Automatic annotation (TrEMBL):
The keyword Hydrolase applies. The keyword S-adenosyl-L-methionine does not apply. It comes from Prauserella isguenensis. This is Putative Ntn-hydrolase superfamily protein. Keywords: Hydrolase.
Amino acid sequence: MMRAGTFSIVAYDVRARQCGVAISTAMPAIGGLAVFARAGAGAIATQALINPLLGVDGLDLLRSRSAHDTMRQLLDADPGADERQLAIVDAEGRAAAHTGPQTHPWNGHRLGDGYAVAGNTLVGGATVDAMADRFESTPTGPLSRRLLEALEAGQQAGGDRRGKQSAALYVHGGRPYPQLDLRVDEHHDPVAELRRVHDIAERELLPFIDALPTRDEPEGRFERLMPGDDA
């Protein structure tokens, strides 16, 4: 049974048309099953008794429904809804979240303009409060940094009461592939390691991703890279 005590944030930057998820937990490889985002739809984190279908189906629903309506339709069809935790944000920045009554304490969520934070099996509610406060205090800047800083604040405030093991950061900017997909699958301090990997990716990977082919520019923009910088 894939049950995970977890803390996460989902967010949509309407101005930049980017959305993403940052998440951490005391189980391995959380980024593989709990994180979903698509810039034309929104972002979803599924946790507690994880159901990846909520993310898969939810992104399809978000193309034509609000975050709240999407959440209601997903949960109405899910026989395990009482054991789920779900955070959703849509492409207009509207947020919704669900914390099932059978998820492990401390459990709860917080909603704001363009984001939702949620957690279960936490040291305490200070984790989600710190995440929300940090995200709201950084209204500008790259979404990946804002998400990561919120995750760091949650870890500093207590995080998962069982310990630490994995973390992930996923950002989608409208292309058929993600702008950033970073995972720390097994580490004694996964959020700190995610920060280290992110800072390297920001310097060395993002310029390459920005030059990749798109539907509008199928040859890409590799001429902007220095000779020999291709992969």
